[in-house]
Specification:
Elements (H helix, E strand, L loop, with lengths): L10 E4 L2 E8 L18 E3 L1 E2 L4 E2 L5 E10 L6 E9 L6 E6 L5 E7 L5 E7 L7 E9 L6 E7 L2 E8 L7 E10 L12 E14 L1
Antiparallel strand pairs: 1-2, 2-3, 2-15, 4-14, 5-14, 6-11, 6-15, 7-8, 7-14, 8-9, 9-10, 11-12, 12-13
């Protein structure tokens, strides 16, 4: 993952649209990761991280919306998610595309207790909307998460123990290969995001 305040080849903002771009690494021998087990790095890819946090409580709820043009080619792995500020999990994936014409709605309650709902995603590369509504359950421990695509409710999941757990506002990575398959595309891949909005109701 690359990109910072002075390097913009893989992260571009234009016409109120964020583009995250993955390009194959050049050279006959790809660079390797510094993290064990030091896999080869086949792509330079853009990602951004939010600096703000949200915490669902019994006194508030959050609605998160956005529009996405997500590549679904084998070997591409864009995502849009909330993840824990301290430790892991909790995590909830508002959209995750793993190299197929589907999007995954995931909630990680523990590292092994995971709820996933897979919904067909149009492969036309037009913009389509996603929405998640996060509300505390009456037990004041768990969070109900309603997932929408193009304004249609697709599934409801429950985040165990998510109440009071600080989450980073949605991060937007464009990962490549991994769970989405290998080898990935030989050319440039672009993941576009626009009109992201986070609304808090209550306190």
């Amino acid at each position: 993952m690359v990109g910072n305040s002075s390097y913009h080849e893989n992260i571009v903002i234009a016409s109120s649209t964020l583009s995250l771009i993955a390009t194959p690494t050049s050279g006959a021998v790809p660079p390797t990761s510094t993290a064990n087990p030091n896999p080869a790095i086949h792509y330079a890819s853009g990602t951004i991280y939010a600096k703000e946090q949200i915490t669902v409580t019994s006194a508030n709820s959050y609605t998160i919306t956005g529009e996405f043009s997500a590549p679904t080619t084998f070997g591409t792995w864009p995502a849009f998610w909330l993840t824990a500020v301290v430790g892991w999990p909790p995590e909830t994936d508002l959209g995750e595309w793993k190299g197929t014409a589907d999007t995954w709605f995931n909630t990680f309650n523990t590292s092994t207790v995971v709820v996933s709902d897979i919904v067909p995603w149009p492969s036309d590369l037009s913009f389509h909307s996603l929405k998640a509504v996060l509300t505390a359950e009456s037990n004041n421990v768990d969070v109900r998460i309603d997932f929408y695509m193009d304004n249609e409710l697709k599934t409801t999941q429950f985040g165990s123990g998510f109440v009071g757990a600080a989450l980073w506002l949605p991060t937007h990575p464009l990962q490549m290969e991994g769970s989405s398959g290998s080898p990935g595309p030989t050319g440039t891949t672009t993941y576009m995001i626009r009109n992201v909005e986070i609304t808090r109701s209550g306190d």
